[in-house]
Amino acid sequence: MIKIDAVHGNRHWLDGGGMFGHVPRSLWSTWVTPDALGRIELTGRCLLVRTETQTVLFDTGIGCFFAPKLRGRFGVQGNDNQLLASLRAHQVEPEEIDAVVLSHLHFDHAGGLVTPYDAGRLRLAFPNASYYVSKLQWERACRPHMRDRVCYVPLFQTLLEESGRLELIEQEGRWSVDPRFEFVFSHGHTPGLMLTRIWREGLPPVCFVSDLMPGTHWVHLPVTAGFDRFPELVVDEKRLLLEWAAETHAQLYLYHDPEVGVITITREGTQSGVDALTWRPVQL
């Protein structure tokens, strides 16, 4: 038995130009309305999965670890870690999380790992969990390039290492904890981004795609983010993802889209090729 639920971290605002990269504002602003600072609203749609033996959380949202000045810069909504309230709405306490699987360690995906700034000294919010991240992403986070150094918070790596419960995933494949989970690496957004495919008996697979495709606007292959380290590789990796999703009828779980959480990919008519693929929203 696998039970899957969406749990939300704090909503926040990031620069629209950063999110849409080379797409001009004159175009992307017709898709989503920016605020006066040119930012667009995003969510942190984390994934709660409960099996017969494990309670697993995929990514943790941006959290509320920033000092007030930075909290305002990124438009973080709320004064506490709203992921915890979302988990409790599903009758799950932080102490009950057995594993936290991190697609990568950028602060808008890993910030909910820690307690809020106003609570004093930061500590891990899930005291009994083991923490899983790809080895390549861990190495990147510990020694970031100067171009993406701002995306990482060194304290997160320190707390994870000191916990003694950090597990590094070195290669793609089925998870040793539960083979119904499959890890697949992507390197265009950041080296070692870890997507997770969840295989369910009698139901289509679910894929947590993280920042390879932040939302529905990025389904269009040429649309990449300015935060992507290797945009052309992102395009190639998205192509493979969409083709796989069309073939397997997979449900793609979107992390940042404030409106649409899950989509499927289908082919239009008798056309072939990735240009014939289209998406539609579905329920898990």
What does this structure look like?
The protein has about 280 residues and is α/β, with parallel strands linked by helices. The protein has one domain: Metallo-beta-lactamase, Chain A (4-Layer Sandwich). Helix content is about 20%, strand content about 25%. It has 8 helices and 15 strands. The protein has helices spanning about 15-20, 25-30, 70-75, 80-90, 105-110, 135-140, 155-165, 230-250; strands at about 5-10, 10-15, 40, 45-50, 55-60, 100, 130-135, 165-170, 175, 180-185, 195-200, 205-210, 250-255, 260-265, 275-280. The strands form 3 sheets. It has a 7-stranded mixed β-sheet. Strands 1-4-5-6-7-8 form a 6-stranded mixed β-sheet. A two-stranded antiparallel sheet has the order 2-3. β11 (about 195-200) and β12 form a beta hairpin. The chain is globular, with a radius of gyration of 18 Å. The two termini are about 15 Å apart. The relative contact order is 0.14.
